[in-house]
Design a protein that fits this description.
The complex is a heterodimer of chains A (106) and B (158). Chain A has 106 residues and is mainly β. Chain A is built from no helices and eight strands. The chains are: A mainly beta (106), B alpha+beta (158).
Chain lengths: 106, 158
């Protein structure tokens, strides 16, 4: 993994919110082999959700065709500086986690 | 989108909308759990069938920005925006990848149906987007020439 922590940025300009996030995730499909010829186990993000002040705004399901260390940008409307953005994620190994950011004026 | 924005402002934020979300606009079981089988599909036909999008109509109102030639298939940047009114979902597929279905998105009220991300492409392929608006599926394609494949299929140890 190229980075160890989730990056989550939320900015707002006027009425428009901009969300950018990146997760440290190898997105291994389970089809690749290592140098010894052994299959590298599948290890990929399967879902993520975004909430603004607790309200669900985006849900995503992912497969291993998403590039390693998945990077996403979304556009929200009706967001104000100070609103709270919550990211929740899950992977195929059963791991899950979350992160929070506050919308800041751009 | 103007109508959505107006509604959001009229509703004053979250309280009124919480009920909407609760009634299944973004039903987690529907948006994320159901298509796991589609993400495991090894052929485009199976993936399209499992997301129920086999008969999608072609629409240029789905705007897709992707390089015509991608040097590195490991991370090809894409930018997708649906201009179809009432778009609630997007699905992104890479036709010739070992797992064609890359992404499914469900958007709530006040969310622009747009996503920017990066995809793997095993080789030169068609990128396919399916947008769902008003319960109808629409689709658009882009051909992407990939110089260096980015999936490292079986047998590729490097």
């Amino acid at each position: 993994m190229s980075s160890a922590t989730i990056r989550l940025r939320a900015s707002v300009r006027g009425d428009d919110g901009d969300v950018r996030l990146q997760l440290p995730q190898p997105m291994e499909s389970g089809l690749r082999r290592d140098a010894d010829g052994s299959l590298i186990p599948a290890d990929f993000l399967t879902s993520l959700s975004l909430r603004v002040n607790g309200r669900l705004v985006i849900e995503a399901g992912c497969g291993p065709s998403v590039a390693a260390n998945p990077l996403f940008a979304f556009r929200l409307q009706g967001v104000r500086a100070g609103d709270t953005l919550t990211l929740a994620w899950r992977d195929n190994q059963g791991r899950s986690g979350s992160a929070e950011a506050v919308f800041e004026a751009a | 989108m103007a109508g959505r924005r107006g509604f959001l402002q009229a509703a004053g934020g979250s309280a009124a909308l919480a009920g909407l979300v609760g009634t299944g606009l973004l039903k987690p079981a529907h948006a994320v759990e159901a298509p796991r089988a589609a993400f495991a599909a090894r052929s485009l036909a199976d993936a399209l069938r499992l997301i129920d999008a086999a008969g999608a109509r072609y629409s240029d109102d789905i705007v897709v920005s992707v390089p015509e030639v991608a040097e590195n298939g490991a991370a090809v940047p894409i930018d997708i925006l649906s201009r179809l009114p009432g778009t609630s979902r997007l699905a992104v597929l890479v036709d010739d990848n070992p797992f064609p279905l890359a992404l499914q998105l469900a958007f709530g009220a006040g969310v622009v149906p747009r996503v920017q991300t990066r995809l793997k492409m095993a080789g030169t392929t068609r990128l396919r987007v399916v947008a769902t608006a008003g319960g109808v599926h629409y689709t658009v394609f882009r051909e992407v020439k990939v110089i260096l494949g980015g999936c490292g299929e079986v047998g590729d140890s490097r």
